[in-house]
Amino acid sequence: MKQQDIGKQAVLFVTLSEEELALFPEKIKHTRYCTGRVGSMNMQKVISAVETAAKRNGIIHEDLYRETHALYHAILEAIEGVTRGQLAIGDMMRTVGLRFSVVRGRPYEKEAEGEWIAVCFYGTIGAPVKGLEHETIGLGINHI
């Protein structure tokens, strides 16, 4: 895996278990990333969970608006994948149980292209009744 593959890395970090990730530590030790979990019927809680994790883990700088803004757009793009383009959860009587990853890197060889951020969600979505959900995944990538 190339260092530039931030989307691919985000998908791997969110779908692989800790044991599976431990199989290739040399390839990921230089990657700036974080992971977390969120479950909710409230879209804002999902967004806030990712933003909080990214800030606490030093993936973005809290005091730089452009970094928070880039993360926000990557989150929205990833949520569109999870919700199949309908940016609503609770309003549509559905709930999500998601793992997420945030990866920051340089997907282009030219230094002037700058840093980018990738957000990936993987988990379940469905009616707020245990057992009636199905798998879902979404990936969003945005320039910082």
From TrEMBL:
<keyword id="KW-0694">RNA-binding</keyword>
<dbReference type="InterPro" id="IPR036482">
    <property type="entry name" value="Regulatory_HutP_sf"/>
</dbReference>
<keyword id="KW-0010">Activator</keyword>
<dbReference type="InterPro" id="IPR015111">
    <property type="entry name" value="Regulatory_HutP"/>
</dbReference>
<protein>
    <recommendedName>
        <fullName>Hut operon positive regulatory protein</fullName>
    </recommendedName>
</protein>
<keyword id="KW-0804">Transcription</keyword>
<dbReference type="Pfam" id="PF09021">
    <property type="entry name" value="HutP"/>
</dbReference>
<keyword id="KW-0369">Histidine metabolism</keyword>
<keyword id="KW-0805">Transcription regulation</keyword>
<comment type="subunit">
    <text>Homohexamer.</text>
</comment>
<comment type="similarity">
    <text>Belongs to the HutP family.</text>
</comment>
<comment type="function">
    <text>Antiterminator that binds to cis-acting regulatory sequences on the mRNA in the presence of histidine, thereby suppressing transcription termination and activating the hut operon for histidine utilization.</text>
</comment>
